[in-house]
Amino acid sequence: MVSEGQTVRVKVLAVDDRGKVKLSMRVVNQETGEDLGDMPREGGGGGGRPPRERRPRSEEANDG
């Protein structure tokens, strides 16, 4: 979360034909401004983090 007036570093990921700008804070080191080079997955989330291991839903439903 960011607060109104807070300064953050972002990377421009895309600009669509209507001029809408897609930005990401996750691919930029907020301290140094360094590009981390890891694009987030479509739909948001996960940029710069390794994928977590998932079990099939049938196993998750049987827990506890």
Report on the structure:
It contains one helix and two strands; from the N terminus they run E-E-H. It is mainly beta and 64 residues long. The protein has a domain of 29 residues. The protein has a two-stranded antiparallel sheet. The chain is extended and about 45 Å long. The chain starts with 10 loop residues before the first strand and ends with a helix. The model has no long low-confidence stretch (mean pLDDT 78).
Topology, element by element:
Blueprint: E1 11-15, E2 21-24, H1 57-61
Antiparallel strand pairs: 1-2
Q: Which stretches are poorly predicted, pLDDT < 50 over at least 5 residues?
A: none
Give the strand line-up of the largest sheet.
1-2
User: How many β-strand runs?
Assistant: 2
Q: Give the averaged pLDDT, no decimals.
A: 78
Helix content: under 10%
Rounded to the nearest angstrom, the distance between the terminal CA atoms is 33 Å
Estimated share of beta-strand residues: 5-15%
Biggest sheet record: 2 strands, antiparallel
Order of helices and strands: EEH
Q: Rough shape?
A: extended
CA radius of gyration is 16 Å
